[in-house]
Write a structure and sequence with these properties.
487 residues, alpha+beta, nine-stranded mixed β-sheet, six-stranded mixed β-sheet, binds adenosine-5'-triphosphate, binds magnesium ion
């Protein structure tokens, strides 16, 4: 740890207090979580010094980006395009992607879905079995291997999961099951645009359900609906389930989840009653069949539609002050497709009474990488990104206003050590840059809290704590600031 040079000058009372604070035994005294030599360093994935980081922020808005999330993702160094519609995730962007992925995963697990991992490369034969190899069209990237076998980069996985399930499952006792994976997909979109929002390679969570009959499949669908509502709420965004143009077999079991944003690709109409629902407090478990049915009824009786399914008559029945229109981004899509794949691919199980039954299936997608863009569309201001806490790459950013000021640097070092010791994900901007530049970068990358440490404050024993979302700043002692952040 850097310290104030002994005897370099007479210290004020505030500085003495600060020094007393600095000399306290700190549990994670060793910098960046290092421990006595010989022991392995504990992992501190949440700790980063900007001076050592790969966080390329841009001053200027890139000219080739049209929408705000794409501009900000480039400026704040989240991604770089490596080919049309294909992106490398730089450290900051990757942290956010992983946060989103983890929330999606936890809510899938809670809903009773089991995680697995299917490959990105698939055999064309699989798709011939389901009958859609030729039908799929130019969005599919078709590849030949060295033996001239036809392969493809998976745009989705219904065919593969149906084959895997078919080859292992024999009896009604093996149902119901929900399986999911979080895996890269490739779709050769005609017009990849808006950065990761409509990429060609993108990360998707796709889940698949298998049930003995339609009634069972409905319950699986309702469980996924609840899991989606909870997932998006945890991500800190409002995603409204909207009835989608029904899939191949009709019915009411197809919903898109739409985040409101002016740059969205579809026009949307919804009842603001959605703004008041709290899907977590709704004391609803995944084993409560009656509760799941009433959740679905509640969603179905509250108006929400995209331009594709909009119904003027039903819309005009919604109270006028509760009607909201706007544009929206599709972040998820769930649908029931019955025996489309199970029939085509010969998935049959014994029903227990001598009969053979064809399971009924549904599939449930979330655009994990698109969500990074969608969250930014929904949460930013003039200065940059404003991350909702659950997906923020780091919770706290420490800024030293003058890196060459010993007292500020010591205080900042100590704050960094304490925060990471307390398990708070912290980015420490210790670069030798002007304070103003550093504050600008910190606003741009949008961490929820900024701890600003400068010589003037240190002289009077204070630091500044700024909340990014509101811009609210508070001057307080370093101890109180840390107590607040680690509470
Ligand atoms: P869209 O209408 O936006 O093309 P889709 O109907 O083709 O979407 P699905 O096949 O249901 O999408 O895929 C599930 C989710 O994957 C979508 O809700 C979306 O969030 C995401 N997604 C689909 N295509 C892309 C893409 N090209 N880039 C990024 N995310 C995508
Ligand atoms: Mg599409």
């Amino acid at each position: 740890m850097r310290g104030t040079k002994p005897g370099s000058s007479r210290l004020s009372r505030a500085e003495l207090q600060m020094n007393a604070f600095l000399s306290q035994p700190v549990s994670a005294k060793q910098q960046d979580g290092a421990v006595a030599s010989g022991e392995p360093r504990p992992l501190q994935r949440g700790a980063m010094r900007w001076s050592r980081a790969f966080l390329p922020v841009l001053k200027e808005s890139p000219a080739d980006a049209q929408i705000v999330s794409h501009k900000l993702m480039l400026r704040a160094g989240l991604v770089r395009q490596t080919a049309a519609g294909i992106y490398a995730w730089l450290p900051l962007g990757f942290r956010v992607l992983q946060k989103i992925e983890q929330i999606v995963r936890e809510e899938q697990d809670r809903a009773g879905a089991q995680e697995m991992l299917m490959p990105t490369i698939q055999s064309a034969d699989l798709w011939r079995e389901s009958g859609r190899y030729d039908a799929y069209g130019p969005e599919m990237l078709r590849i030949r291997d060295r033996h001239d076998r036809e392969m493809l980069y998976g745009p989705t996985n219904e065919d593969m999961i149906t084959a895997l399930f078919r080859d292992e499952v024999r009896s009604y006792r093996d149902l119901p099951r929900m399986l999911y994976h979080i895996q890269w997909k490739f779709r050769d979109e005609v017009r990849p645009r808006f950065g990761v929002m409509r990429g060609r390679e993108f990360l998707m969570k796709d889940a698949y359900s298998f049930d003995i009959d339609e009634a069972g499949a409905r319950l699986s669908y309702y469980k996924q609906m609840l899991a989606y509502l909870r997932t998006f709420q945890r991500l800190g965004i409002q995603a409204v389930p909207m009835k989608a143009a029904s899939g191949p077999i009709g019915g009411d079991l197809s919903h898109e989840f739409i985040v409101l944003a002016p740059t969205g690709e579809s026009e949307v109409f919804y009842d603001t009653a959605y703004d008041e629902f709290d899907w977590h407090q709704a004391d609803l478990g995944y084993d409560d069949d009656a509760g799941l049915h009433s959740l679905f009824d509640r969603v179905n009786s509250t108006y929400a539609a995209t331009d594709e399914t909009h119904d003027e008559a039903r819309w005009s029945a919604v109270e006028e002050d509760r009607r909201r229109t706007g544009r929206g981004i599709e972040v998820g899509h769930i649908f029931y497709f019955g025996d489309k794949y199970s029939s085509a691919m010969g998935l049959k199980i014994s029903g227990g009474d001598g009969t053979m039954v064809t399971p009924m299936m549904g599939s449930y997608g979330i655009g994990v990488s698109r969500l990074v863009g969608a969250v930014i569309e929904a949460s930013h201001d003039e200065a940059g990104i404003v991350w909702p806490e659950p997906v923020a790459p780091w919770q706290v950013g420490i800024v030293t206003m003058r890196a060459d000021d010993e007292a500020s640097a010591s205080a900042a070092d100590a704050a960094y050590t304490q925060l990471i010791g307390a398990g708070i994900e912290t980015l420490y901007d210790d670069r030798d840059e002007r304070g103003g530049v550093k504050l600008g970068s910190m606003d741009l990358i949008g961490l929820p809290w900024q701890l600003i440490i400068g010589p003037r404050g240190i002289a009077s024993g204070t630091v500044e704590l700024k909340r990014r979302a509101t811009g609210e700043r508070q001057e307080l002692s370093l101890e109180s600031a840390l107590a607040r952040l680690t509470a």
